[in-house]
């Protein structure tokens, strides 16, 4: 099971809704099963962004610094399936990720977040519990999914965009920049 705060959950969902019908995504960091950091990444796919979400090695480097700076463990990449079911595609499974987080947007205004644990060729669904920012449990996705049926105003999107810009600007490393990491960018770039 994963735990995520309402604020972070909303960032992921609003990004996915705002980018629709293109795929969106980013990185999740945390401790054990608790998601404590969300780093949205613009889709870098040069082709059809409604079919594929792509990351560059610069994005991976940015995520690495984000995780180090915030002392978070890497949990996984999230990405949206604007039209398809929120189940990992063969391409998603080819990245040898332990967890895959997928937003299903078949109903754009009531998106769903799924977490999948990958063990070899088998995929298991992990429960996701959304807690309020004050720590009280408010929503269990498996039993009562939250309704995000409001349309997103451009003002709201501006606020999110400014927040994301702030995170990225705040990522100026105060420590010596570490080497290009253990990420294998060659096998870790595109999700379908
Ligand atoms: Zn996918």
Written account of the structure:
With 192 residues, the protein is α/β, with parallel strands linked by helices. It has one domain: Cytidine Deaminase, domain 2 (3-Layer(aba) Sandwich), CATH 3.40.140. 24% of the residues lie in helices and 31% in strands. The protein has four helices and eleven strands. The strands form two sheets. A nine-stranded mixed sheet has the order 8-7-6-5-2-3-1-9-10. Strand 6 and strand 7 form a beta hairpin. The longest helix is centred in the last third of the chain and has 16 residues. It starts with a strand and ends with a strand. About 19% of the residues have low confidence. Bound molecules: zinc ion. The site of zinc ion has 7 residues, from strand 5. The site of zinc ion (ZN) has 7 residues, from strand 5.
């Amino acid at each position: 099971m994963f735990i995520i705060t309402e604020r972070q959950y909303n960032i992921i969902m609003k990004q996915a809704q705002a980018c629709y019908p293109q795929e969106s995504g980013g990185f999740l960091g945390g401790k054990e099963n608790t998601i404590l950091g969300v780093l949205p990444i613009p889709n870098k796919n040069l082709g059809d962004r409604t079919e594929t979400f792509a990351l560059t090695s610069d994005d991976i480097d940015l995520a690495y610094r984000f995780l180090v700076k915030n002392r978070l463990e890497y949990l996984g990449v999230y990405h949206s399936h604007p039209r398809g079911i929120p189940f990992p595609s063969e391409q998603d499974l080819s990245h040898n990720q332990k967890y895959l987080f997928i937003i299903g947007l078949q109903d754009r205004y009531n998106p769903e977040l799924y977490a999948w644990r990958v063990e070899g060729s088998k995929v298991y669904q992990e429960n996701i519990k959304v807690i309020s920012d004050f720590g009280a449990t408010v929503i269990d996705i498996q039993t009562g999914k939250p309704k995000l049926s409001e349309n997103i105003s451009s003002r709201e999107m501006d606020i999110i965009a400014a927040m994301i810009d702030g995170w990225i600007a705040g990522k100026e490393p105060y420590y010596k920049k570490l080497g290009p990491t253990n990420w294998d960018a060659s096998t870790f770039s595109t999700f379908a």
